[in-house]
Amino acid sequence: MPTTSNLGDGIYLSSVSCPAVGQCVAAGVELPGNIGAVYENEVGGTWVPTQAPVPGFDPPATPEVWLTNLSCPGVGACAGGLTAINQDSGATSLFIEIDPSLPPTTTQLSVVPITPMNGQDVTLSATVSATGTEPTGTVSFWSGLTSLCSTVLVDGQASCNVPRWPSGATSVGASYSGNSAVAPSSSSTEFPLLIGTTSLPLAPRKVAYSATLVAGGGNLPYKWSVASGGLPRGLHLKPTGAIVGTPRTSGTFTFTVKVLDHRSRAHPSSTATQPLSITVP
């Protein structure tokens, strides 16, 4: 049985994989929450518990995150796709945890545009590096439990295109694996909250009007409001981001909209603003 002497007495293990006698890895959570998600590596009967950062969760090591579905393909290559489950919110995320005995690799992730909007064409790229060697293998890109694309690493570079960004995907990760000589690695990022609407259609006077503001990143759900200025008489902005009503007065009306995401208002990127205007002919 794995011991918990290094980290206290509250480690609960939910997944274990043993490719050979005396070579096992177990994963789970440490409670009551001093360090959060953990994995334990066994070598010759000795178990060493280690904190396991979980990409896509804030904070990265939260006590409500459990690690499941561990798989070790071979001795010295105890790495596999883990599922992290936030027991508080029900959120899930896929990532790769590694055996620390393998030479490490580093995966760097980039996304264009920085904050993708629903339905937008998005390019995902990753650079994988290791000391003294050029890694080979595959890079998979994902958001939560949604697989976006996968591509072979060439000269340490991998890139693929997502022609229509999925609705509600506010983060992305890249996982490198496929070379038993080096450790897998992963990287993830949460997109900064950003308003994608930069202009609004004309609103003819005395004609029913409807337009929906668009945002991306942050933490769903969003809540919209008017930060300054004012909409044309007869129009109003719903908290869902819909501008509806029947305009009554002609002219051009300028205002600034604000979107608040689901994080604490004290979070430095919990709000975004955008100046807009509506012309009523």
What does this structure look like?
By secondary structure, this protein is mostly beta strands. It folds into 3 domains: 1-100, no CATH class; 103-190, Immunoglobulin-like (Sandwich); 194-280, Sandwich (Immunoglobulin-like). Helix content is 0%, strand content 50%. The protein is built from no helices and 22 strands. A 4-stranded antiparallel beta sheet has the order 1-2-3-4, with no helix packed on it. It has a 4-stranded antiparallel beta sheet with strand order 11-10-13-14, with no helix packed on it. Strand 10 and strand 11 (146-152) form a beta hairpin. The termini are far apart. Mean pLDDT is 74; it is low at 1-9, 32-43, 47-65 and 71-98.
Furnish the topology, listing elements before pairings.
Blueprint: E1 11-20, E2 23-30, E3 36-43, E4 46-51, E5 65-68, E6 80-86, E7 92-97, E8 105-112, E9 122-130, E10 138-143, E11 146-152, E12 157-162, E13 171-177, E14 185-190, E15 194-195, E16 209-212, E17 215-216, E18 223-229, E19 235-237, E20 242-245, E21 251-260, E22 271-280
Antiparallel strand pairs: 1-2, 2-3, 3-4, 5-6, 6-7, 8-9, 9-12, 10-11, 10-13, 13-14, 15-17, 16-20, 18-21, 19-20, 21-22
